[in-house]
Specification:
91 residues, alpha+beta, 34% helix
């Protein structure tokens, strides 16, 4: 499945995205367990709310991390990975 700039995603119904103080990172919780996210993945999924388009997420992160360079492909790759893992679903 191709990730398009106009696509809108949300966290899948059987998953929960949250900051986990004990882990000091964002996590994805699901019935079988928990996945600790690296900081980049956490920043991306923090913007996946069922309202923001993929382009909104890219634009927001480019503003927040001005020195990061060309991060578009990395963000798209994270969307693809999260979709393959069923962490997110297209709204």
């Amino acid at each position: 499945m191709n990730i398009e700039h106009g696509d809108v995603y949300k966290i899948s119904p059987h998953h929960r995205f949250q900051w986990e103080e004990a882990q000091n990172c964002y996590v994805i919780l699901f019935p079988e367990g928990m996945v600790k996210l690296n900081p980049s993945a956490g920043e991306i999924l923090n913007l996946v709310d069922g309202k923001n388009t993929v382009l909104d997420v890219i634009t927001s992160l480019k503003k927040k991390f001005k020195d990061a360079g060309d991060i578009d492909k990395d963000i798209i790759s994270m969307f693809q990975f999260a979709l393959e893992k069923a962490w997110i679903t297209k709204d």
